[in-house]
Amino acid sequence: MTKYLIDDYATKMLIIFSNNYISNHDITVGLFSALKYLEDIGYKIKGKKHRDVYYEATKYLNVLGGTYILDYFTSEELEQKIVKYMMSIKGASSAE
User: Is the pTM of this model over 0.90?
Assistant: First the structure.
């Protein structure tokens, strides 16, 4: 997962680590895994910048955390939820 942070390090650090839930290992791994998967398949949101993908994913986690206790999810469950949500965004596409 640390290799994922090499590219666009400053943006990822600012957006992702500015959230309180990042101190939970499962949430961190779930988020990074989802973002890495999306990046690997060439995921894009039409009309948005690359860093907006991170914003959207963290915004979704904030909304999800308002409805559920995120600490009870496994990293795999969170990854699936994030990917599913991100793929549902209007204008989203991937090269896959």
Answer: no
